[in-house]
Design a protein that fits this description.
seven-stranded mixed β-sheet, 290 residues, Methionyl-tRNA Fmet Formyltransferase, Chain A, domain 2, seven-stranded antiparallel β-sheet, Rossmann fold
Length: 290
């Protein structure tokens, strides 16, 4: 099948690779423009652009380049821009979405599934509509969430989604007989800095789920302390206090406590929590955090 592919992050690369491996003719890859990924850094291509160039596929940053392109369908995986209705009328598109739609429509379905404590999530291959993630479903595949980090779960869903899309494209029945979404609609709102902020009001379970997103932090002595990993403990300590207990740095929450494993002080590298505590010379006392 002659296709256009629209995608940007690493999670979209397995689908692009799967299309090529399955023998589809990817006539054009459209991705977000190159960007600087560090202070003073040179422009860096998106993971999809890098993969497309490696595969010898033509690449564009302009949606308008699809207007006159002779393709049967567009394939969209985490492209990062809403596709205009006029273009969808011109080029029908399939989307690989990382949730069991209609649960978690929107920008951050993997992270919202983790934060909500969902036991399972998955992928849905849908036909794109002008409205957000509302299109009929061609195929769903389920995945257990377990204790996976957001990065781990996204990587797994990317592979499952690539396989599901290839199955849809190979099956006239799946391709032509999509079904309307059925079930409770929930929305995966965009993540903000506060999404990652651990606070004393949290339960231990929610705090650990937040840590699994990557980028979690708490505030101590008016400075951010990144929390790279942690685990639940049975210690009893008041919410908003932190102390050393039996070789662990324990953080008190409204519902339970967690022990920090690896932390990243503001402006520094990731290190063990005990090393950080010793460097701050907190000793055996307790300190407040927020």
């Amino acid at each position: 099948m002659r296709l256009a592919f629209l995608g940007t992050p690493e999670a979209a690369v397995p689908t692009l690779q799967a299309l090529v491996d399955a023998g589809h003719d990817v006539a054009l890859v459209i991705t977000r423009p190159d960007r600087r990924r560090g202070r003073g850094a040179a422009l860096t291509p998106s993971p999809v652009k890098a993969a497309a160039e490696f595969l010898g596929l033509p690449v564009s940053h302009r949606l308008g380049d699809l207007e006159d392109l002779d393709v049967e369908r567009g394939i969209v995986v985490a492209y990062g821009v809403i596709i205009p209705e006029a273009l969808l009328r011109r080029v029908p598109m399939l989307n690989v979405h990382f949730s069991l739609l209609p649960r978690w429509r929107g920008a951050a379905p993997v992270q919202r599934a983790i934060l909500a404590g969902d036991e399972e999530t998955g992928v849905a291959v849908i036909s794109l509509e002008p409205t957000l993630d509302t299109g009929p479903v061609h195929l769903k595949r389920r995945v257990r969430v377990e204790e996976k980090s957001a990065d781990e779960l996204t990587s797994e869903l990317a592979v499952v989604g690539a396989t599901a899309l290839i199955e849809v494209l190979a099956s006239p029945d799946l391709l032509e007989n999509a079904r309307a979404q059925d079930g409770e609609v929930t929305y995966a709102e965009k993540l903000t800095k506060e999404t990652f902020h651990l606070t004393p009001a949290m339960t231990g379970a929610l705090a650990l789920r937040t840590v699994r997103l990557g980028g979690a932090y708490l505030v101590i002595a008016d400075r951010r302390l990144g929390v790279a990993s942690a685990h639940a403990v049975d210690d009893v300590i008041g919410p908003g206090f932190m102390t050393r207990s039996e070789g662990s740095i324990v953080v008190g929450l409204n519902g339970g406590a967690i022990a920090l494993e690896d932390v990243r002080p503001e402006g520094s590298r990731t290190m063990g929590a005990m090393s950080w505590w010793s460097g701050r010379q907190y000793g055996d006392g307790s300190v407040e955090w927020s």
